[in-house]
């Protein structure tokens, strides 16, 4: 065996071991919570949605929010219309007559240096009445038991709970995007459960108001184009005066917590979404960069294996890389009842390689374009 073959095999073996550790985090995410949503003492909750030019999606979102199994007098549905220029405001006004617990707020002037969605979220959090705030997006739809299941994972020490989002499927590439999300968010879930805070997805998080206020809210958190990541990191790292964590952050995996969202409709939208995530993730800690570099090397090994390695070594390299990824993907898809997505897995591996090797271009691209706005980064 030549030295290059030995190096590539070492990389994918380390990558596989890393994913065995992640598997422990995924199993922890599957544990049943100790709490339960007692109907006799249900807290006041707010579902917060920021909507900007979502006339195509907002009704499906509202239909799912209307169907949530939670007392209407204990559940506030707050939609922040972020200066929409399409029919979104008209649709929301029509729904107010149908949903007595629906509150619609239109964003005013931007607060200090807060821009775009962060400004809308800040104004929404200011207006929210709930002790707990569940946040999703206007192009997403939730399970009827979403709020109750979230509450089961809160105790007095819990400041934030997050979970998995997958994508609706109309076309072949939608399924590839969805399995991509299952892997990325499976990694986020697994790492959080082994005390490595990577990230969350902003269309499926919940936060205790007291935890949000303890970090000063978005007004005190440095601006980020990935506001969900910024809030997650702020709450995770919030310390008491004695240096111990003030809040626990949980990332469970459960079918009732799974949110479904719209896939990117074209390459331009996909690029802009991934670019925003890449730029937002530049604030990762050292361990995050180690994980990224190992993943990059594993992708490089897989892509070039059949070019530079003897056939047995090339097959072994690819097999170990795929097996490692499946250690995260299969439990996530099993728990979310989406195992049929596995048929997209071989294409996903090619897709993943293309994405990973486009990341340097995304990192070099300065301005982030999202929802009709440009953010200088």
Short description:
The protein is α/β, with parallel strands linked by helices and 377 residues long.
Query: What share of residues are in beta strands?
Result: 5-15%
Kindly report how far apart the N and C termini lie: 45 Å
Major sheet strand order: 3-2-1-4-8-6-9
Question: SSE string, helix = H, strand = E?
Answer: HEHEHEHEEHEEHEHHHEEHHHHEE
What shape does the CA trace take? Answer: globular
Whole-number radius of gyration? 21 Å
Largest sheet: 7 strands, mixed
Could you report the average pLDDT, rounded to the nearest whole number?
A: 89
| Overall number of strands | 12
Name the poorly predicted regions. none
Helix content: 40-55%
Content-based structural category: alpha/beta
Number of helices: 13
Give me the secondary-structure topology.
Blueprint: H1 3-29, E1 45-51, H2 58-66, E2 75-81, H3 88-96, E3 102-106, H4 116-127, E4 132-137, E5 140-141, H5 146-152, E6 158-162, E7 165-167, H6 172-192, E8 205-208, H7 209-214, H8 217-220, H9 227-236, E9 248-250, E10 259-261, H10 267-280, H11 286-308, H12 311-335, H13 345-364, E11 368-370, E12 373-375
Parallel strand pairs: 1-2, 1-4, 2-3, 6-9, 7-10
Antiparallel strand pairs: 4-8, 5-10, 6-8, 11-12
Helix pairs in contact: 1-6, 1-11, 1-12, 6-12, 6-13, 11-12, 11-13
